[in-house]
Amino acid sequence: MDITLNFTPYTFRLKNILYLITLVAFFSSCGTRKYTVKSDTKASKAADAMANLKSKQLYRFITDWTGVRYRFGGLDKSGIDCSGFAFLLEKEIYGVTLPRISRDQANAIRRKDVDNLKEGDLVFFSFGGSDVDHVGIYLNNGFFVHASTTRGVIVDDLTLPAYQKVLVKSGSVN
């Protein structure tokens, strides 16, 4: 019995093509897995707070400054501190001129309970004692934007215990 394998260039190419198609299908199926972000994560809640802003101008301002690093005394995109950020935001978005220092900004507001805060209201903290030494701008749903000393300009959760322990005043500009 004589067995001869008769491979023509055409059948050899066809087998190679089918083999490649099988490999491509196999490896591409591994990449189609859908990854979802849990809707109750801090990041998704911060994104929701941004999406729910009433002022589109405020939204643009925040996104334009997000990630700018913290620099004590800074007042531009090369670095900004918390009171400088509040100063610029209130002036550009609401036409209000605040004092430049957070302690003085706290003296310029009308006190409001945290539960009654509105978009653009200010929240003040004391990390180093009894004096106000940090400020942020309230957004909604318990979130605020500020210039963090470690993370730069960021939207953060006011309900975190770390902030609740040091929150000393909140309110709107007189």
UniProtKB/TrEMBL annotation:
The chain positions of domain NlpC/P60 read 52-174
Alphabetized GO MF terms: cysteine-type peptidase activity
Which InterPro entries would you find in this protein's record? Murein_DD/LD_carboxypeptidase (IPR052062), NLP_P60_dom (IPR000064), Papain-like_cys_pep_sf (IPR038765)
Asked if the record carries the keyword Iron, the reply is no
User: Which GO BP terms, alphabetically?
Assistant: proteolysis
Q: Where are the transmembrane segments?
A: 17-35
Q: Which key words are in the record?
A: Hydrolase, Membrane, Protease, Signal, Thiol protease, Transmembrane, Transmembrane helix
Taxonomically, the superkingdom here is Bacteria
Q: Which Pfam families match?
A: NLPC_P60 (PF00877)
Q: Would the keyword Transmembrane helix turn up in this protein's UniProt record?
A: yes
Family the entry assigns: Belongs to the peptidase C40 family.
What is the protein name given in its UniProt record? Hydrolase
- Protein source organism: Pedobacter miscanthi
